[in-house]
Amino acid sequence: MSVITHIEDLRVLAQKRVPRMFYDYVDSGSWTEGTYRANAADFDRIKLRQRVAVNIEHRSTRTTMVGIDVAMPVAIAPTGMTGMQRADGEILAAKAAEKFGIPFTLPTMSICSIEDIAAATSRPFWFQLYVMRDRDFMARLIDRAKAARCSALVLTLDLQIIGQRHKDLRNGLSVPPKLSLRNLADMARKPRWCLGMLGTKRRNFGNVFGHVKGIETMRSLAEWTNKQFDPRLSWADIEWIRKRWGGKLILKGIQDAEDAQLAVASGADALIVSNHGGRQLDGAPSSIAALPAIAEAVGRKIEVHMDGGIRSGQDVLKARALGAKGVYIGRSMLYGLGAMGEAGVTRALQIIHRELDLTMAFCGHTDVEKIDAGVVRV
Ligand SMILES: Cc1cc2nc3c(=O)[nH]c(=O)nc-3n(C[C@H](O)[C@H](O)[C@H](O)COP(=O)(O)O)c2cc1C
């Protein structure tokens, strides 16, 4: 295996090791994928200011996100079906995040359950919630996250309907995978993945299976899930969730300054500027392009976080400079996981951390807390 030096190396390796149906599920956006591409491309357009002859010997990337200490201003984004990239994927990623000292966010639509992650880790993780029609089920999910001592709830607001991803339709994406001839032939070329899947019992949606009455088969689970995302979601639901949860609340999927103001009014602790990794509204601006106006609209009232297109420590620095207190990584983590399991997620975090540390130093800074718009050339 060649030496892994940046996130792109992990992506290439993941593409070789993960069955096509699940690799494509990660490496894709909705419709033309224009917003998906813009998320990363717009970072490249931002240039940094080099400074020299500044003492940069002692440096720190430590900071906080919603008051929680983090080794760098990066958290793991919630990504559905992570346990299909690699057996027990959420457990592996959560362990890597815990050892690194950054938050891991478990999604509602994970393969490993809330209880699985709680049993495998010793520091509190974060839980991502979708607003579902079955409010009793949602209430139970919130209670389970509380019982597992999750330290923040990430409420996703931008997936009440689903943006079409051509590749997923073509591949017939499903959990567990459809065993068509084409899929079987592809899996046969990925023996490491197959062995892992044979060795685990976690192969369906762990937070749902066994927790909803009448769902005993994969088919009934799929039918139930498809009907659950509630298109009637409103700010009143968010108020209900905030009260029921009672802890740190982060609203995910904000793209617009007006919605950001409503997020402030809702009493949330933070918002995430996000377009769901370019998987929902194709034609929306990249997250990094949307960030400055939202950061300005919100001021210091609540924390502003962002995600979308972070593939390097340079990207983390640019997001900090343009107003994000912290960022989340989706695909950078998933590529590491698909490539090398827990070691791959750790490698992804090490790469991003080292790039952040050195880039900060090139810009004449020693403390990530003090990064401001001055590091960016305008
Ligand atoms: C494969 C995949 C699955 C995702 N599933 C979820 C999910 O279940 N819940 C959610 O809030 N966001 C989900 N997202 C969006 C991520 O949380 C995040 O917004 C996005 O990945 C950030 O962009 P990046 O992948 O370029 O870092 C998913 C993203 C990907 C790539």
Detailed description of the structure:
This protein is of the alpha/beta class. It has a single domain, classed as TIM Barrel. Helices cover 44% and strands 11% of the residues. It is built from 15 helices and 10 strands. It has helices at residues 7-17, 20-26, 34-45, 89-100, 114-120, 135-147, 166-171, 181-188, 191-198, 218-228, 235-245, 257-265, 287-298, 313-321, 331-362; strands spanning 63-65, 68-70, 74-76, 105-106, 126-130, 152-156, 249-254, 270-273, 303-307, 326-329. Strands 3-10-9-8-7-6-5-4 form an 8-stranded parallel β-sheet. Strand 9 (303-307), helix 14 (313-321) and strand 10 form a beta-alpha-beta unit. The termini are far apart. Flavin mononucleotide (FMN) is lined by residues 25-26, 39, 77-80, 107, 109, 128, 156, 252, 274, 276-277, 279, 307-310, 329-332.
Using DSSP, what is the number of strands?
10
Text of the CATH class: Alpha Beta
Number of domains: 1
Structural class: alpha/beta
Q: Runs with pLDDT <50, length 5+?
A: none
Order of helices and strands: HHHEEEHEHEHEHHHHHEHEHEHEH
Mean pLDDT value: 96
Helix tally?
Answer: 15
Backbone shape: globular
β-strand percent reads 5-15%
Bound molecules: flavin mononucleotide
CATH hierarchy: architecture: Alpha-Beta Barrel
Give the strand order, joined by hyphens, for the main sheet.
3-10-9-8-7-6-5-4
Q: At the fourth CATH level, what is the homologous superfamily?
A: Aldolase class I
Summarize the main sheet. Answer: 8 strands, parallel
**Oligomeric composition of the shown chains:** single chain
**Residue share in helix:** 40-55%
Question: In angstroms, what is the radius of gyration?
Answer: 20 Å
**CATH topology-level fold name:** TIM Barrel
Distance between the termini: 41 Å
